[in-house]
Structures are given as C-alpha cells and as structure tokens.
Amino acid sequence: MKFYIKTFGCQMNVNESEIMSGLLTREGYEWTENPENANLIILNTCAVREKAENKMHGAIGEYGRFKNKNKDLILAVGGCSSEKERDEILKRHKKVNFIFGTRNVVDIVNMVNRAKRGEKFSDFSDKLSDMSHDLPKMPNSLHHAWVTIQYGCNKYCSYCIVPYTRGFEKSRDFEDIINEVKDYAKKGYREITFLGQNVDSYGKDFGDGKPKLDKLIKEAAKVEGIERIWFMTSYPSDITDELIDTIAKEPKAANYFHLPVQAGSNNMLEAMNRKYTKEQFYKLVHRVRSKVKGVTLSTDIIVGFPGETHEDYLETLQLIKDIRFEKVNIAEYSPREGTIAAKFKEDNVSKEEKNKRLMEIVEIEKNIGREENEKYAEKIIRVIQEGKTKHGMHFGRTINNKVVMFDSIDEYNGKYVDVKIRRVSAGPLYGQKIADETQVDFKKEDPTLKIFD
C-alpha cells in the first residue's frame, strides 16, 4: 500500500509528517512521490492565515478527485486547520475518510486501519504522552534534523489561532529529547533544530516555572557528532539571560535569534496582547547583541492590525530601522475566525493602506539586508552545504544563519565548505567554493565569526 503526505505550514508540521511517514513505513506502507499512485493521502494542514486554510480546501478537492479512479483511496486531513474546522470538514468534503488533530499523529497507523475497516470519523485525542525518541522518522535531510521539544501556546495573542489549534503548552521529557539527539548523531546527523510554538518556554511546566532551553542546549552540545544547534520559534519575553549566555559561550549553538516583535508601537503590542513593551524589546536586543558575537536577528511584523494609526506604523518603521534585522517576515493583518481580534476588533485599516505599509517595509528591509551583507564581501565564510536550488546552484548556511550560494557538487551535501564571497544581495550571499572538509589541510577554525573580531 502506497502513501503520500502533503505538508503545509511550519517546521513542526514538517517534523510531524516525518514521524507519520516513519510509522507508516515501519508498518509496511511505501512512500510515493506521485499522489495519483497512492492508496493513502494525508494532508497535514496549517491554519495560521486564511490563505493557508483555503489551500487545505483546494487540496481536498484536488486529491479527492483521485477517488474517481481509485474507490479504495483513503483521504485523511490533520493539522491545525483540521483542529479549527473539526467536523465541518467531513460535512463539507464527503470524500474525506477521517480527520485528526495536532496531538495524535503518533496514532496514525491505528487511524488508517480504522478507515480501512470502513469507518468515517474524527479523532482529536491527546497522545503527546506517547511521543518518544524511538519513534521511526523519515527526515528529508541526511544531516539536519527537526526535534520538537514543546507543544502548544499559552500566550493567546489576540490575532493568533494557534492556542486554539495546538492547545496548552506541554514540554517533552528532557532525557527523551537528549536520547533523540543521540539517535540522530549515531545516524550521522550534524545539525539539529529544537522546535516549539514557544520554544524558549521549554520546561516552564516542569514545576518551578523556569525555562530550561539553555540547559537542553548545553546537554545536546555534549553529544558527539552534533555540531550545530538551532531553535525556533521564540517568544521575546521568555528569552532569559541564561539562554543568551549559553548561545554566547557554546560553540555549537547557532549565533542566531528569531525574535518576533510584531509591532513597534506599545499601543499595538497591547492590542495584540503581546507580553512586552517596545522598550523591553529594545533592551532584549541590546542584551543579545552585547553578548553574542556576530549574531544575526530576524523578526515577524504585522501591518494594518485593527486600530493601527499612521503614527503607530511609523513607530514600527523606526524600530526596524533602529534594530536592522537581517530578515523581516511581514504579513498584512487578516481576521482569523475564532480569535479575540476577529471577534471584538474592527478590521479598519484599508487593504490599500496595509499593502502600502507592507511594501515600504519590504524596500527598507532590502536596503538594510544589502548593507548588512556588505561586511561579508570578499571574506571567507564557512557553511554546511545543504543541497541545490531549482536554478542549479548549491547553497549552505553559516553558523549565524547567512544563506550562501555557490557552485559545487552533491557529494559535499552535509559537509563543511569554505566559500569566498564575490557578490552580495539583499538576501543570499554569492561566492566561490575554495575548500571543503575532505581536504587534508582543511582548517578546524570557522572563519565566519572572525569577520566580527
């Protein structure tokens, strides 16, 4: 029996699809790249924006048509949109066999067997306690692994649907996570990324209320074979001094923070129910930059939130100019059914004004990105080669998350490569491969952070 999984949304969905693929493969199912050849199709969906939800409905229609040729095809829908829509999916789409939630992906084999027996059902049970390091997985990479350490969100930002689709925060057992890291290291993986809706709140639910991501990174760094450790996505007010110090002192920890600020106006931050002020955010950035050598920062911004005045927007613009993020993910506000903002706040910023603000930030960020990248011109930096783009160039990533494009061969995927930068852009750097770790005289020291000496 062949299966196909279509994954939408965040890296946690990717990780959960890897787990479902591993479980199905262990059961004797065979992965296929062509959904038309599949006997089982699973849609792992996203609900963060309405556009993502519309993609789910479109995909159900597209893949549901395969049932015209294969009446035994099982079509399943899981993920955040499934949690949000619940039984409405079964009512609207008659060709869906079953729907499931974000906390029971480990039960996928049992659910498929129920569908094979003719059941049409929804199952939103909580099986997070069954998550463990020894679950089989099918990662897309041979050198980098996603490791989910924390589920759910307790923040209830007024615009966000995630707490309603992912539930309350729950941290995985510390030792089980380290065992998973060790498992990946034994298989030759060199990089791991710790994942969570609020990854830096990991461990706050263990009893003392204190985050423990710093301790987790320190312990993971002891695992032989693991050479880079990343984490995402952070919530600014949960970033501790201990975590910053750990990133600063631990050579294996990536010198990179994604800090979603969302707005630069205290009026908007309060309306969004964010748990910090812009002054506190500025102080956080100062603490990070004063301690972590060569650190790069990225953020998320929402423009056109209900009630955002021109003055509020200008404050956000000023924050972006002051902090000079390496990357800004920008979104125009759109109401999400079920959120506080959608229920109680009028969407009173016009579509035209939202788009104008977005495009202005895009242009400013392009200029900042290009200017920040100039420091790398004609310098030698080190990447782990990740693969090839659709345009044929290979690419890799530095320890501080700069993406570099260069000519190479697939043989070096997953290996350290030194690249001399010949051209910069607002996004990637472009260079020439000059050395790789297979060479006898390859130097151990990473030249990247020497740029900041």
TrEMBL record:
It comes from the Bacteria. Residues 1-117 form the MTTase N-terminal domain. HAMAP family: tRNA_metthiotr_MiaB. Keywords: 4Fe-4S, Cytoplasm, Iron, Iron-sulfur, Metal-binding, S-adenosyl-L-methionine, Transferase, tRNA processing. Residues 374-435 form the TRAM domain. PROSITE patterns: MTTASE_N, MTTASE_RADICAL, RADICAL_SAM, TRAM. Its EC number is 2.8.4.3. InterPro entries: Elp3/MiaA/NifB-like_rSAM, Methylthiotransferase, Methylthiotransferase_CS, Methylthiotransferase_N, Methylthiotransferase_N_sf, MiaB_methiolase, rSAM, rSAM_horseshoe. GO terms for cellular component: cytosol. It is an enzyme of class 2 (transferase). This is tRNA-2-methylthio-N(6)-dimethylallyladenosine synthase. Binds 2 [4Fe-4S] clusters. One cluster is coordinated with 3 cysteines and an exchangeable S-adenosyl-L-methionine. [4Fe-4S] cluster 2 binds at residues 153, 157, 160. Its cofactor is [4Fe-4S] cluster. GO terms for molecular function: 4 iron, 4 sulfur cluster binding; metal ion binding; tRNA-2-methylthio-N(6)-dimethylallyladenosine(37) synthase activity. Catalyzes the methylthiolation of N6-(dimethylallyl)adenosine (i(6)A), leading to the formation of 2-methylthio-N6-(dimethylallyl)adenosine (ms(2)i(6)A) at position 37 in tRNAs that read codons beginning with uridine. Pfam families: Radical_SAM, TRAM, UPF0004. [4Fe-4S] cluster 1 binds at residues 10, 46, 80. Belongs to the methylthiotransferase family. MiaB subfamily. It catalyses: N(6)-dimethylallyladenosine(37) in tRNA + (sulfur carrier)-SH + AH2 + 2 S-adenosyl-L-methionine = 2-methylsulfanyl-N(6)-dimethylallyladenosine(37) in tRNA + (sulfur carrier)-H + 5'-deoxyadenosine + L-methionine + A + S-adenosyl-L-homocysteine + 2 H(+). It is found in: Cytoplasm.
